[in-house]
Design goal:
Residues 17-479 form the Major facilitator superfamily (MFS) profile domain. This protein is an all-alpha fold and 497 residues long. The chain is built from 16 helices and 2 strands.
């Protein structure tokens, strides 16, 4: 075989590997949002209590967020392909358990398992990309990844609506989980063949004390945020959230000693000395807050306030999805190499403009607003989000050493989940806080429309904060600094047979 044929074969393998890991990432993103649409059907068919319904979504989110940093570090230590395949396999098994759950308690347990397996799978996606593609190609790859993120975020509700309304084989809501089975099995089989193993160049050990501290701190912070509104914001919830701060302080102190002692901390604190990473983490957290607020209040506005069907609400989001995917691909491939961080700042302003336009349209048309009238603000918002999501990932990870790719990826995903959880917690203040406890049927629509507009003013304000934070990002990601996207000299990752 000639060297040209070998290069072509290796190139083909890595693009197939990219398709595999991005399919798995899409499966996780869809699964986060698809369940919300089917909640009424699950409650009706299974007789689930309100608390159990809350835990079907909260259990997944908590297990996912609490395990992300650990999952990323396990990939650095034991191999990213190995952890990815274990995560996909476990996620697929948990999906089957969800689909065949015989009662609400089994469904809740399966969802917790599913979240834990996602925490093993998801950090490896960015780590595998980081280890497989050279720096000058990652911009294009992260552009594709940003498109997948945008598509997954808004296609989940549409797919959930279709699967639930079709009632395939009389299974009601169960296909929303069972659809993961063929996708997961294919990802495992193809991943074994096409994904190249990689791990940190030097031997690392699992930091069990760090695992315990980070899990405890995240649970103390996220559990009250997730359940606070349902429980009426009890005092113990506030005490838990306040108590998470000294736990995180203890984690930082311990990780510093751990790094000095044997160089194997769970959280690589040296990453925060990389300006692009530290600034990007701040942007990602606040951006997660905006998305956490918007997507939940948007769904409530359409389905409860306007009284739209699940399917109509899902179809209304299609222009947003297309705009995000298109803008994400264009931003990294063409705009960021030329204009750098100005593209991200333009994205924040554009998304904020779309939010303001949505407020104006909602106020003008009230309960009579049509799906096509929402298309313009949704497209503007989608373009803004697309200009942010892909280059932001690129900017955050561009200067991260490859040996810490798993840890960085885990931190990136964790702060995004924390931001989302904080946003969901704020919904009780910025949305439900505007709605009276008891409403006559005729008052529900106007009350929800008014609360939606109030919440969107908060989202617009958050986008302004994001614009300011972006000034701390590097003017250009590292791979674009040295002349027109030419390859930058860098060390290859250690490959493991």
């Amino acid at each position: 075989m000639t060297s040209t044929e070998q290069t072509s074969g290796a190139d083909r393998r890595r693009w197939i590997a990219l398709a595999i890991v991005m399919t798995a990432a899409f499966m996780d993103l869809v699964d986060v949002t698809i369940v919300n649409i089917a909640i009424p059907s699950i409650q009706r068919d299974e007789g689930a209590s309100f608390s159990q319904i809350q835990w079907i979504t909260a259990g997944y989110a908590l297990a996912f967020a609490a395990g992300l940093i650990t999952g990323g570090r396990l990939g650095d230590i034991y191999g990213r392909r190995r952890l990815f395949l274990l995560g996909v396999g476990g996620f697929t098994l948990a999906s089957a358990l969800c689909g065949f759950a015989v009662d609400p308690a089994m469904l809740v347990a399966a969802r917790v398992l599913q979240g834990g397996m996602a925490a093993m799978m998801v950090p490896q996606v960015l780590s595998i990309v980081h280890a497989t593609f050279p720096a000058h190609e990652r911009g294009k790859v992260f552009g594709l990844f940003g498109g997948v993120v945008g598509l997954g975020a808004v296609s989940g509700p549409l797919l959930g609506a279709l699967l639930t309304e079709w009632n395939l084989f009389g299974l009601e809501w169960r296909p929303i989980f069972l659809i993961n089975l063929p996708v997961g099995i294919a990802a495992v089989l193809l991943g074994r063949r096409y994904i190249t193993e990689s791990r940190a160049p030097r031997a690392l050990k699992l930091d069990l004390v760090g695992v315990a501290l980070v899990t405890l701190g995240l649970l103390m912070l996220l559990y009250p945020l997730t359940r606070g509104r349902e429980l009426g914001w009890p005092l113990w919830g506030h005490l838990l959230m306040a108590g998470s701060l000294p736990v995180f302080a203890a984690l930082v102190a311990y990780e510093r000693r751990k790094a000095a002692r044997d160089g194997s901390p769970l959280v690589e604190l040296s990453l925060f000395r990389v300006r692009s990473f530290a600034a990007g983490i701040a942007v990602q957290t606040v951006f997660g807050v905006a998305l956490g607020v918007f997507f939940l209040v948007w769904t409530l506005y359409m389905q409860v306030g306007l009284g739209w069907s699940v399917l109509r609400a899902g179809l209304t989001g299609v222009p947003f999805s297309l705009a995000v995917s298109t803008a994400a691909a264009l931003s990294v491939q063409f705009l960021v190499p030329r204009f750098g961080r100005k593209v991200l700042q333009a994205g924040a302003l554009t998304m904020g403009l779309g939010v303001l336009l949505y407020i104006w349209e909602s106020d003008r048309y009230g309960l009579a607003i049509a799906s096509w009238q929402m298309a313009l603000p949704l497209v503007v918002m989608g373009v803004g989000m697309g200009l942010i999501v892909a280059p932001l990932t690129d900017a955050i990870l561009s200067e991260v050493p490859r040996e810490h790719a798993g840890s960085a990826s885990g931190l990136l995903n964790t702060v995004q989940q924390m931001g989302n959880a904080l946003g969901l917690g704020l919904v009780s203040v910025v949305f439900f806080g505007q709605i009276a406890d008891r409403l006559a049927p005729a008052q529900v629509g106007p009350a929800f429309v008014g609360a939606f507009q109030h919440a969107l003013w908060w989202v617009a304000g958050v986008m302004g904060v994001i614009f300011l934070l972006m000034s701390a990002l590097p003017k250009r990601p590292a791979q674009h600094v040295e002349g027109g996207g030419e390859p930058v000299e860098e060390r290859e990752p250690e490959l493991v047979s």
